[in-house]
Amino acid sequence: MFFYSCALHKISHMAPKPKPQLLHRIAGDSSQSSAKRARAMSTDSPMKEAFTKYADYLNNLNDKRERVVKASRDITMNSKKVIFQVHRISKYNRDEVLEKAEKDLAAVRDQFISRLINELRGSDFWKLRRAYSPGVQEYVEAATFFRFCKTGTLLNLDEINATLLPLNDPSLEPLKINVLDYILGLADLTGELMRLAIGRISDGELEFAEKICRFVRDIYRELTLIVPHMDDSSDMKTKMDTMLQSVMKIENACFSIHVRGSEYMPLLGSSEPSSFLLGVSDIEL
């Protein structure tokens, strides 16, 4: 044990001691590394602030998108109720049905469209268009459907945006329905008019059904001139095919009524009730 401790003592004396220059170099390297770390921390701080800012922006945008989707669903649901109300129209209850539909449409505008406008106020609404477009299209469909049944005319884009103007903040640029959503809603209108025309024919209102036929045909003709100049939109192409089917259904229904009406002629030129098989007047037993 004694010899072992002596050997260690000798080895420690024999080991070379670091030179003063080497100590200064090591100290300098450590100070430079700490300076680099300080510079790295200082450069990371602005990037961290930027990323935090962008993260907050995206989180707020996603939260707003969820609220806009909810508002769009409410607009869609309540606009459909207006459409169902208008479909109850007949020559016996026209004023009553349209009065109720007008109140329901005003409620959609004042309660749900106004909430959507408040959400989109002060933001780039084009970023969220996919979130609210279905509701706006349904509202356009309901508003134009109501206008046609009331006056027989088309509610154009300027008129429908004028009804939304009081809902906007006067100090900000007003939020307006864009042309694309208006045209998409107008394309859906033709389907509702086709259902209305078939219903009116079954109730014997052929003149009203023919008026609907001419109106839908005019819409389809005008849109065939506009759609080729629009950007590629699969939604619009699909709706144009559906619109053509609606036009053909109304035309076939009206044509069938005319043909069937012209085929009926009283036998022997008499207006008296007659037997189809015998060609003589029915005999009351």
From TrEMBL:
Its predominant location is cytoplasm
UniProt keyword Nucleus present: yes
GO molecular function annotations of the record? sequence-specific DNA binding
GO terms for CC?
cytoplasm; nucleus
Q: Mind telling me which InterPro entries this protein's record contains?
A: Translin_C, Translin_fam, Translin_N, Translin_sf
Record Pfam families? Translin
Which SUPFAM superfamilies does the UniProt entry name for this protein? Answer: Translin (SSF74784)
Which keywords does UniProt give here?
Answer: Cytoplasm, Nucleus
Q: Which Gene3D superfamilies match?
A: Translin, domain 1, Translin, domain 2
**Domain of life assignment:** Eukaryota
Where in or outside the cell it occurs: the entry states:
Cytoplasm; Nucleus
Of which family is this protein a member?
Answer: Belongs to the translin family.
Q: Which protein, by its recorded name, is this?
A: Translin-associated protein X
Q: Which species?
A: Tripterygium wilfordii (Thunder God vine)
